[in-house]
Automatic annotation (TrEMBL):
One of its GO terms (cellular component) is DNA polymerase III complex. It holds the Pfam family DNA_pol3_delta2. This is DNA polymerase III subunit gamma/tau. Residues 37-178 form the AAA+ ATPase domain. PANTHER family: PROTEIN STICHEL-LIKE 2 (PTHR11669:SF0), REPLICATION FACTOR C / DNA POLYMERASE III GAMMA-TAU SUBUNIT (PTHR11669). One of its GO terms (molecular function) is metal ion binding. It comes from Alkalilimnicola ehrlichii. Keywords: ATP-binding, DNA replication, DNA-directed DNA polymerase, Metal-binding, Nucleotide-binding, Nucleotidyltransferase, Transferase, Zinc. The lineage of its organism: Bacteria, Pseudomonadati, Pseudomonadota, Gammaproteobacteria, Chromatiales. GO terms for biological process: DNA-templated DNA replication. DNA polymerase III is a complex, multichain enzyme responsible for most of the replicative synthesis in bacteria. This DNA polymerase also exhibits 3' to 5' exonuclease activity. It catalyses: DNA(n) + a 2'-deoxyribonucleoside 5'-triphosphate = DNA(n+1) + diphosphate. Belongs to the DnaX/STICHEL family.
C-alpha cells in the first residue's frame, strides 16, 4: 500500500476527532442536534487550523443517510464519498483559483437545481475573500434568497476582505491557532497509533515550529519521520528544522547569569559547529525568555510536562525579572537587525555581548534617575531603559537665578514677626522679585490669582501700589484684597495699605513670568534628556525614542 501523508491520513472525520476549537464545535453540535440550521456558515482563521476539515464534517452531518445529526455514521455512501472527496452534491471551490464572475455565475446558475443524491447541495468555497466584486454580488443574490436545498460553507483566512453584506448573512465561526501543547499531544497520539518511536522533546520542537497549524505540524512530522528513517529524534528534528538545541540556550543564559563572557563565547563556538539559523536561534531564545518571565511571575505555569523543567526553574531563580525583560528586548531588536550584521554569527554574538554589557549591576539602585547634568559621562547600565526612554523623569536644573535679583524672602526665610525684607529694597523690586515674593506668601486660590495678575508699582509710606489690567477687573473684591494686604503686611512686617490702580501693566506680570519659567524649565529638561549619554545609548542600542511632550521637569 502506498504511503499516505499523515495530514491526509489523520484528517479528522468527525467532530470528536478534531483537536481544539471546542468553542466552535459546541455551537455546531448544538445547532445540528436541535435542528437549528443556517443556510450559510463562515469559518475564519489562519491556515491549517481546520476550516475546510470542519466544513467537510459539517457537509457529512447534513447529508448522512442516517439523518441530520452532529454524529454522521461514517458508513453510508454519502459519508464515505464525502470523506473520499467524490460526493456529487458537495461542490468544493477554491476561490483563489476561480475569481472571474463567469465562473461564479456558472457555479451559482446550478444552485436552483435540486441535489442529485444528498439532502442538501453543499457549496464549500475556500478562500472566499479572493472572489472579485462581481462574484460577491452574484453570491449575495443567492444568499439573499437561498433555495431551501442549498447550504453554503465558506472559509477564509482574511474575513476583513469580505463585504459586510455577505458577512451579515453568514453564521460566523472564528477558529483559533492551536496551542503547541495541544499539537504535541495530537502528534504523540498519531505516532502511538502508527507504532512509530519518538523522543518527547522532538514533538514539542515540531509543535513549536508549526506555529498553531495542525496541518503544518503533521507535514513536518512526515519530514521528521523520513529524516530519522522511521523514528522521530530530537537531534535530527532540530537539524532538520535548522533549530539549535535548548541546551545551548540554557548554557548561554547560565553564562549570562554568571556574567562569564568567555564561557558564553565558547558556547557560541560550539553552536557554530552546527551551522544553525541564527535568526531562528534568537527566536528560540525569545521563546525561552518568555517562558522564564512566565515562570517568575506565575510559577504554576511551568507544568510537569514542560521540557527541562528543573533547569528552567533554576534559571528563573538565578536571573532577576528585570534582566529577563532586558534580555528579551535586546534579543528582539537584535533579531530585527540581524540581516544588517556583516555576518549572522557576528550579529548573534553582539546580541549576547550586549546583554552582558547592559546587565544591571546588582549594587545599582533599582530605579536610577537619569542624571540631570549634561556633562559627558560614560553610559551606565540601567535597569529599565525602555521605560525611561518612554517616560523620562529628569531632575532638570532650573534656569539660573537672575544675578541682579534682590534678596527675597524665598532665599532667606525667617519668622514672620521680624521684618525680612526692607520696604525700601522692595520698593525698587522688579517683576521677578515681586513674583518671588508672591511665591513665599501663604496665598491660595483667588487671592493668589489676583496677585499673579498684578504688576508691581512701588511701596512707600505704608502704601503698597499694584497695577491691574482693567480686563481683570472681575478678579477684584474687597475680601480678597484684604487677604492679600494682610499676607503682604506679614511678609514686610508692618501693616500696609494696598492700592490697586486699574491700568494696563507696563512690564511682565507674575502670571507671564510663571509661564516663561515653566517653558524654560521644560526646555532645559528636554535639552538635558537629549544630551544625556544614557539616553543616547538607549537610543542607539534599543532604537528608543523620546516621546514628544512626555518630558516633565521635576524638582
Ligand atoms: Zn452517514
Amino acid at each position: 500500500m502506498s504511503y499516505q501523508v499523515l495530514a491526509r491520513k489523520w484528517r479528522p472525520r468527525s467532530f470528536a476527532e478534531m483537536a481544539g476549537q471546542e468553542h466552535v464545535l459546541r455551537a455546531l453540535v448544538n445547532g445540528l442536534d436541535s435542528g437549528r440550521l443556517h443556510h450559510a456558515y463562515l469559518f475564519t482563521g489562519t491556515r491549517g487550523v481546520g476550516k475546510t476539515t470542519l466544513a467537510r464534517i459539517l457537509a457529512k452531518c447534513l447529508n448522512c443517510e442516517e439523518g441530520i445529526s452532529s454524529q454522521p455514521c461514517g458508513q453510508c455512501s454519502a459519508c464515505r464519498e464525502i470523506s473520499e472527496g467524490r460526493f456529487v452534491d458537495l461542490i468544493e471551490v477554491d476561490a483563489a483559483s476561480r475569481t472571474k464572475v463567469e465562473d461564479t455565475r456558472d457555479l451559482l446558475d446550478n444552485v436552483q437545481y435540486a441535489p442529485t443524491r444528498g439532502r442538501y447541495k453543499v457549496y464549500l468555497i475556500d478562500e472566499i475573500h479572493m472572489l472579485s466584486g462581481h462574484s460577491f454580488n452574484a453570491l449575495l443574490k443567492t444568499l439573499e434568497e437561498p433555495p431551501p436545498h442549498v447550504k453554503f460553507l465558506l472559509a477564509t483566512t482574511d474575513p476583513q476582505k469580505i463585504p459586510v453584506t455577505i458577512l451579515s448573512r453568514c453564521l460566523q465561526f472564528n477558529l483559533k491557532r492551536l496551542p503547541a501543547v495541544l499539537i504535541a499531544e495530537h502528534l504523540q497520539h498519531v505516532l502511538d497509533q502508527e507504532g512509530l518511536s519518538y523522543e518527547q522533546p522532538a514533538l514539542a520542537t515540531v509543535a513549536q515550529a508549526a506555529d498553531g497549524s495542525m496541518r503544518d505540524a503533521l507535514s513536518l512530522l512526515d519530514q521528521a519521520i523520513a529524516f530519522g528513517s522511521g523514528e522521530v529524534r530530537e537531534q535530527e528534528t532540530r537539524s532538520m528544522l535548522g533549530s539549535i538545541g535548548r541546551d545551548f540556550l540554557f548554557d548561554l543564559l547560565d553564562c549570562l547569569a554568571a556574567e562569564d563572557g568567555e564561557a558564553m563565547l565558547k558556547v557560541v563556538g560550539e553552536m557554530g559547529a552546527q551551522a544553525p539559523d541564527y535568526s531562528e536561534a534568537l527566536a528560540e531564545l525569545l521563546t525561552l525568555l518568555h517562558t522564564l518571565a512566565l515562570a517568575q511571575t506565575i510559577p504554576s505555569s511551568v507544568t510537569e510536562d514542560v521540557p527541562q523543567r528543573e533547569r528552567l526553574l533554576a534559571l528563573a531563580e538565578r536571573l532577576a525579572p528585570e534582566d529577563v525583560q532586558l534580555f528579551y528586548q535586546i534579543a528582539l531588536i537584535g533579531r530585527r537587525d540581524l540581516p544588517l550584521a556583516p555576518d549572522p554569527r557576528i550579529g548573534f554574538e553582539m546580541v549576547l555581548l550586549r546583554m552582558l554589557a547592559f546587565r544591571p549591576q546588582s549594587a545599582a539602585p533599582s530605579a536610577p534617575r537619569v542624571k540631570a547634568s549634561p556633562q559627558a559621562q560614560a553610559p551606565e547600565p540601567s535597569r529599565s531603559p525602555e521605560k525611561q526612554a518612554k517616560a523620562p523623569m529628569p531632575a532638570a536644573t532650573p534656569p539660573p537665578a537672575d544675578a541682579q535679583q534682590p534678596v527675597s524672602a524665598r532665599e532667606a526665610p525667617a519668622p514672620v514677626s521680624q521684618p525680612v525684607a526692607q520696604p525700601a529694597a522692595a520698593a525698587s523690586a522688579d517683576g521677578a522679585a515681586w513674583f518671588d515674593t508672591i511665591d513665599t506668601l501663604a496665598l491660595k486660590g483667588p487671592a493668589r490669582a489676583l496677585a499673579m495678575q498684578c504688576e508691581w508699582v512701588g511701596y512707600s509710606g505704608g502704601k503698597l501700589r499694584l497695577r491691574l489690567d482693567p480686563n481683570h477687573q472681575h478678579l477684584r473684591n474687597p475680601a480678597l484684597e484684604q487677604r492679600l494686604a494682610k499676607a503682604l503686611g506679614e511678609h514686610y512686617g508692618e501693616d500696609l495699605q494696598l492700592e490697586i490702580e486699574m491700568r494696563a501693566p507696563e512690564g511682565a506680570i507674575p502670571a507671564q513670568l510663571a509661564e516663561e519659567r515653566a517653558a524654560n524649565r521644560r526646555q532645559a529638561a528636554v535639552e538635558t534628556i537629549n544630551q544625556d549619554p544614557n539616553v543616547a545609548a538607549m537610543r542607539d542600542t534599543f532604537g528608543a525614542e523620546v516621546i514628544n511632550g512626555s518630558i516633565e521637569p521635576i524638582d
